[in-house]
Structure formats: C-alpha cells, structure tokens
Amino acid sequence: MGDGTLTIELTTDELRAVTAFAVACAEPALALFERHCPDDDRPRTAITAARAFAEGGKRTKAIRDGAWAAQRAYQETRDSGQAAASDAARAAVATASSAYLHPLANATQVKHILGAAAHTARALELEAGDDPAIGDAHIAKAATLATPVVVRVLSRYPAAPNGGGRAGELLRRLDAVLSDRV
Q: Which sequence spans correspond to the domains of the chain?
C-alpha cells in the first residue's frame, strides 16, 4: 500500500479497467435514479461518457462535464429529501470520476475506484427501507465484478479513508475484501 506521498504509475488500460468496474457497479443505481427522476438524464450521461472511455474511447471533456452535471443532480435530490436518488446520483459522479483517478498514493483516491459501488449499495439500501443487508449484498456482488487489474490498481493505494457515513463504511468493507485478494 502507498504512503500518501508516492506517485503511482497508471496505464490507460488500467484506468479503463477501473472505469469499467465503476460502470458495472453503478448500473443498478442508474435504474433507481431514473425511477425517482425520469426526466433527469444527468447521471445516465455521466455513466455513458465513462462507459465510452472504458470501451476504448478517449478521456474527454464530456466525462468531466457529465460528472459535474451528476453532482448537481446529487445536490438537488439531496436537498429535496430524495435520499436514495441522491446516493444513486453520487454513484454516477464516482463512475465518471474513476476515469480521472489520480496517480497519487492518497487514500481519498480509493473513492474514485470504489465509490460507485459504495454509493450504489447505499442507494439500494435506502430504497429498501434502509436495509443494510441490501447494501451488503451489493458490496458482495461488486467484489465479484472487480477484475485482477482493478485489484492490482487498488493495492497501490492506501486503505480507504475514514468517514463518509454508511457509504464510507460500505466502501471500506469493499476495500478490505479486495485487499485480501492481493
């Protein structure tokens, strides 16, 4: 694991693998968000842009723009009391952000790798009446989606940071499961 000061080498193929993992983890969140906000395509746009990169496209301004738009969708749903939709939008933000994982051995970068899974898990929990078993099940599923490339990239970073409420707890749980595979 990194110590927070080292630079990490990341290839484009590794960034694509991390982004593909985030896209796969966020798919259920996208469906949930669209059930609550059927006329808001900002999270879908962010995930679509990230998917294009994961499938071999260039990292474009559309990914960053999608992330910022999904961030606004997160804030708006949070402010209107739509907690499940809010975490679903955060999953889209994390998905787009994964394409821009920074090559610094800093624990906060783990959020770019695992944030889509954690926020999707939290959104699904909230949708199910705040049932932690639902979130735990999504984290277990996300662990199966992590390729060896994703696990190797994650192993270069320090452990996930503290904080972040229940989504942070889910993120740290997934980090621990995947770290055991190294």
A: 12-179
